[in-house]
Amino acid sequence: MYWVAGFASSRSFVVDLGRNQSPSFGLCGSDDRHLFYGYIVAVPAQDFGGIMSGLVSDSWWKKTLYITGGALLAAAAYLLHELLSFRKEQQLDSKDAIILHQFSRPKNGVPSLSPFCLKMETYLRMVDLPYQNYFDGSLSSQGKMPWVEYNYEQVCGNEFIIDFLEEKLGVSLNKSLSAQEQAVARAITTMVEEHLYWTIAYCQWVDNVQETQRMLDLPGPLSDLLKWILCQLTGGIVKREMYCHGIGCFTKEEVYSLMEKDMRTLATLLGDKKYIMGPKLSSVDATVFGHLAQAMWTLPGTRPEQLIKGELINLAMYCERIRKKFWPEWFVDLEDFCYDSDNDTSSGTPTCMLDLGLFSRTDTLEDSDLSLPSHSNTHSQDSDHSGRSLSDSDIEADGSDVEQQVKGEI
């Protein structure tokens, strides 16, 4: 019996055995050097000769089938490696600067297909904090997106990010709320993020995945194949996590029934008020907007869109109110404001969206009780047609204007 020895490791590595050099090991695509660790394993190779002899003895079409299958597997492995490969991240100076890491912009003009990324960026605009977008797609150390850096501190999880910014910069959207109102706002946030989110994610990444795939924006000649692989991976993750959550055990109709109940609850809570908790903004508005915007603008022809643009029109007006106030560069065709099954929802919409980072708009906070940080007075005075102060300085992973490919999970 013949045996083959090999090395098993949990990470990719490069072995450098140049002449007159000691061995060095590093991550693929990186100049960093890491310790060489793993396990030496030995496996029996007695069947290897049998496989090769079978290839020789088989007919030509079987050989072709073996070779083609191997080539396809190798190509798939290469594409997955390119999609999920480790990259040496550009070092960013977060001294007195908020750097928001999030997924790249989609092609349909919506800021993000992730409700949590949209929530976080909307919140930063609501509290009028300048920030820089970083579309590298790298997840936080906890495997989450989005996450922020500030003064070389990294924080992930929207709730923890908001608490962190309130503590460090003294801003808050909830100062005008009573203790009971804050409890109600937290209950609404929990319902939206822990229940409604899964029903929208199901519609987005499972039931309506073809439309979502068309919205993704990935560079390169193999972008269509990469988008297909990404959507299949994300759809599998969503279904698995929904099952672990419990909501994935139900049928499609039952999932949509739960979604409808949550949306009707939000419509009832909103009523004819300007915002969820009344005439003034609160952090729950960023949460609700981030999730309802997905139903409003990323799911054409689906049941969530029909519901929000039809019977629950007050939710659509609420989303439009926040979009106009905090996203002046986000173009929306108002002719598609109400649902029309014969209407082409893609007509009239731009293929891309301006990335306005370091966003500051101090004249839209007249109805908010905020304590602004001292550096708010240093914002750019460039204005758009409405007089809002804007500053454009989104940055990319490699410093170019081309967005990096999307990686990670929702």
TrEMBL record:
List the residue ranges of the region (Disordered). Answer: 369-410
Q: Where is the Thioredoxin-like fold domain?
A: 115-208
Stretches assigned to coiled coil? none
Residues passing through the membrane, by range = 65-84
What are the annotated GO cellular component locations?
cytoplasm
UniProt feature, compositional bias: Polar residues: 371-380
Q: Where is the Metaxin glutathione S-transferase domain?
A: 260-322
* Keywords of this entry: Membrane, Transmembrane, Transmembrane helix
Report the CDD domains cross-referenced here.
GST_C_Metaxin (cd03193), GST_N_Metaxin_like (cd03080)
Chain ranges of the Failed axon connections homolog N-terminal domain: 1-104
Similarity remark: Belongs to the FAX family.
The protein's name in its UniProt record = Failed axon connections homolog
Source organism of this protein record? Sinocyclocheilus rhinocerous
What is the gene called?
Answer: LOC107711729
